Amino acid sequence: xxxxxxxxxxxxxxSDAVKKDIVFLLDGSDNTRKGFPQIQQFVKSIVERMxxxxxxxxxAVVQYTDTPTVQFHLSSYKNKSKLLxxxxxxxxxxxxxxxxxxxxxxxxxxxxxxxxxxRRLEGVPQILVLLTSQPSDxxxxxxxxxxxxxxxxxxxxxxxxxxxxxxxxIAFKPNMVYKVNDYAILNSPFLRWKIPD
Length: 197
Ligand SMILES: *[C@@H]1O[C@H](CO)[C@@H](O)[C@H](O)[C@H]1NC(C)=O
Description:
Layout: H1 2-12, E1 20-27, H2 36-48, E2 57-64, E3 68-72, H3 80-88, H4 100-110, E4 126-132, H5 141-149, E5 152-159, H6 164-170, E6 177-180, H7 183-186, H8 189-193
Parallel strand pairs: 1-2, 1-4, 4-5, 5-6
Antiparallel strand pairs: 2-3
2-acetamido-2-deoxy-beta-D-glucopyranose binds at residues 53, 79, 81-82.
């Protein structure tokens, strides 16, 4: 329960005062196939609470297995209903490997970038929500460090067999990690209640 609160404190801490750019990096491996609709719902439930239409908040989604794929960029949607329907239309990627390190590096270089809508250089908080279901098949240390150096705040969400210590290494702070054993918990009413108005 405590971890849930931390997770959402991070996401909503600045919700009224400041803008934010949030990138969801989603494990699309075979492991997450069954839970993928719940992952989509989880992303949507956070987006619902953001200020998209007034241009305050921006959202991007990257899906990864052995390689990452940009589903849409921070600059893609300025309209919440279109953004939500883009999340509905995501297709599960599929694949046996998860190269979380490569996916984080790719996201830093190709998504958190001004030309694709990141406002990092304007001082807008940069948040990465990494959702993964298993230990990474590649090295995560260097890419995780690079994200921290760029002041990108990574929140780790582990489902299923995710490696908790690995997520603690990746997260901006070790306590920005949130682990669930079941996809259904991602969308438990408790999470919604925890979000301040
Ligand atoms: C967003 O798109 C929908 C559907 O095209 C449209 O009805 C709505 O007015 C748009 N909202 C804004 C704030 O532009």
